[in-house]
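Bit of a strange request maybe. I'm writing a small parser for structure token strings and I need a real example to test against, not something I typed by hand. Could someone generate the tokens for this chain?
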Amino acid sequence: MNLITRRTALKLGAAGVATLAAAGPAAALVKITVTGGDFVPLPIAVPDFASSDPAFGREVTEIVRANLKRSGLFSIIDPASLPQQVGDINAAPAFESWRGTGADALVMGQVDRLGQVESSVRVWDTQAAAQVVGKSYATDSSSYRRIAHQVSDAIYTSLTGEGGYFDTRIVYVSESGPKANRVKRLAIMDQDGANVQYLTQGKTLALTPRFSPSSQMLSYMSFDDGNPQVYLLDLASGQQQRIGSFGEMTFSPRFSPDGRSVVFSVEQGGATNLYSLPIGSQQPQQLTSGAAIDTGASYSPDGARIVFESDRGGSQQIYMMGASGGGAQRISYGDGAYSTPVWSPKGDLIAFTKQQGGQFHIGTMQPDGSGERVLVSSYHAEGPTWAPNGRVMMFFKDPGGNDGPRLYSVDIWGRNEQQISTETFASDPAWSPLLT
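Reply from user aminoacidic:
Good idea to test on real output. This should exercise your parser:
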């Protein structure tokens, strides 16, 4: 094993991320397959990260442990039972001792505030006695939680072979106040509920926020001008602008995969059709026509196709067409009314909401409409959004009565459903791409 010194590792990591040493076994320790309920989380040992400030090292470690546990793929071994309470990235582990804890994988990390925050991590396969991955990160001191999320992504990816999703943000509609007079604001937070910021004041209604591919812009619908209209918000400057004046109402916007245009719905003369508009242009292209309600458009990852909901056939169903419009084909044929289709970042699945049998259902289907799978059923569940790895999604549930909506996540096998903590009631989440 060719270990290198921490100093060398941090030097390599000065540009942000670097590989510490040649990776060990390429095979993932966690095999992610659609096998149902017999999945057993991988036992993993994560001693506290070494640090000149032990409390800081422990705090970063707790974020990493929480991310891994929340994924549902890992079982964190009680830190108090570990043979080593603090990690050492510069020493090869005593593998026999670690195997005695039941750990199949071991994480050793170090983190320090040295003007900026610097962290190194090594992941070991205890059964093979070999390093799986070693990486180093650096960021400014105000973003130390991002270091923990980046480390979590490195661990997740090295052990599962899938992309991570922890260094991401969620934008959603924050709901507060009495049910009959709810104040709804746009809010943004880390995927674990930390670092909440409110983007609008709640003086007017703002709904359906969606990230641009760069995560620097949002599209959303606002009542600032009285009627629903589509706006863009620059997250860095806080500047917002209405995309233009088209029809009586514009709503349900979503960026194209290249971020250069927005697809949205326009209501005019009682009909609702889909349009696309290059950012900065005032000449939208009409994609659908007719008296139906066409809305909820979502691009395929390659930008070639659009999936959307429409009642053109007499009931609310999911349709697919080319990105330039025309030739729409129905793809949903199950019982009930289908809505909010969202294409997976991997392109292999489409998430949807379905109302059937007096319940709401969150599910997935393949792009040709086959393989429908219901993941969640509830009194009111709606608005699925994909994590960037296409293996986890978030949505909201509202139990009704005097309570309010809450955010939840679930994996694509319907496992590991759990509530995401928010300061207020929350609905209509949208998951950002990876920030790195």
